[in-house]
Amino acid sequence: MSERPLNIRHFAALAATVHHGSVTRAARAINLTQPALTQAIARLEADLGCALFERGAAGMTPTEPALLLAPRADAALAHIGSPRVTGTQMRAFLALARAGSYAVAAEETGLSTASLHRAVADLAVALGQRLVDRRGRSVMLTPAGERRARGFGLAMAELRAGLAEVAAWQGKAAGRIVVGAMPLSRARWLPETVLRFVRDWPGVDVAVMEGSHAELAGPLRDGEIDLMLGALREAALLDDLEQLAVFEDRPALVMRAGHPLLALPAVDGAAMTAYPWILSGRDTPLRHYWEAMMRAVGAEPPHVGIECGSVLTVRQLLRGSDALTLLSPAQLAVELDAGVLAMRPPPVPVTRTIGITTRQGWRPTAPQAAFVTLLHEVAQAGFA
Fold it and tell me: What is the rounded distance in angstroms from the CA atom of residue 180 to the CA atom of residue 185?
């Protein structure tokens, strides 16, 4: 089913029949004929390879797969927001929203440009909204288009989760977990978790999307990412996301081996301002911690000439200069163990909270819940 657009009408028929218990009442509720609703359920059962209802004189009794799938279908339909939207239209519009042009979206989906144009135009008519504005060869979403894209993305996430739950009920571990990974999580915590997870759930794929908090928060909200790992932000800034603390990280001052700072008996503000700094962006927690550390030792934070969030790049920059950085030792463990880089504690202890960020109301599937449990276990085992 994942190779072609999901038929939204099939899921609407399933949910209505679960709620109403009869084909007649369900068909009336979603404005379908009884034969059309019966056919929709039969096709969904054929696609899933299992019975969704037990037919009897008392009506339609949902089976366990139907009870698993119906709440996901309800949530998806609520996110879609209109019974006139088709799976083909959703697929085309989401591809266009992510690609930014019809040509790129056509290449990524295998659809023709003409088919994409037609599907998006039909969607706009069905919703009575202008969804995109042309900007030369590219397109930009209108505010209504942005809201629809997010809703459709969340709807697809719910349906994928529901199908994965049915597959698990059938004894087929299936599905996919998409993890947004900020820099610190990529060092040891996430890799060790993935290794343990794939041993326990060999049929479930894991995809890792790397980026900063700013780059990953949007895909998380849109349903493209299931959970995000890294330094937690102020809760007041994330009213639609939930954060769960997992462990505390204590960054250190890191520099090249043989750096003059290593020979000092103590590090003060004057010593730290005598060298250039390489740090993450202005709006990251680590940058704020660094600024607070500098002020705590009586020094105004100096100008940061190189802003960089790539640990690989920072590593090379440190090796070839007298620059300093503030990073978790776990992120440079190989270089520190090899003696290529060195570290010393900051003059004022720096602690940041690392954890898991999800959408509010996120209901993980069994594999997703197992992955979260493993994240905690791996952190407690010292791989953080």
Answer: 9
1-172: CATH topology? Arc Repressor Mutant, subunit A (1.10.10)
Q: What is the pLDDT of residues 81-124, one digit of tens each?
A: 999 999 999 999 999 999 999 999 999 888 899 999 999 999 99
Q: How far apart are the first and last CA of the chain?
A: 38
| Domain boundary assignment for the chain | 1-172, 174-248+352-384, 251-350
DSSP for 10-69, please give it.
Answer: HHHHHHHHHHHSSHHHHHHHTT--HHHHHHHHHHHHHHHTS--EEEETTEEEE-HHHHHH
CATH superfamily of 251-350: Periplasmic binding protein-like II (3.40.190.10)
Q: Check if the beta carbon of residue 375 is closer than 8 Å to that of residue 189.
A: yes
Which residues lie across from 54 on neighbouring strands? 61
Equal fold, 174-248+352-384 vs 251-350:
yes
Q: Which of 34, 32, 40 shows the shortest CA–CA distance to 14?
A: 40
From 80, 122, 365, 359, select the one nearest 244 (Cα to Cα).
359
Per DSSP, which regions of 32-172 are E strands?
Answer: 53-56, 59-62, 132-135, 138-141
174-248+352-384 to CATH, choices 3.90.230.10, 3.40.190.10, 1.10.10.10, 3.40.50.2300: 3.40.190.10
With a CB cutoff of 8 Å and minimum separation 6, the contacts of 159 are 6, 11, 72, 73, 76
Beta strand 176-181 with 205-210 is parallel
Has this prediction a pTM greater than 0.85?
yes
pLDDT in tens, 324-376: 999 999 999 999 999 999 999 999 998 999 999 999 999 999 999 999 999 99
Question: How far apart (Å, rounded) are the C-alpha atoms in residues 353 and 330?
Answer: 15
Angle between helix 113-127 and helix 102-109 axes, rounded to 10 deg: 110
Rounded Cα–Cα distance for residues 176 and 381 (Å): 25
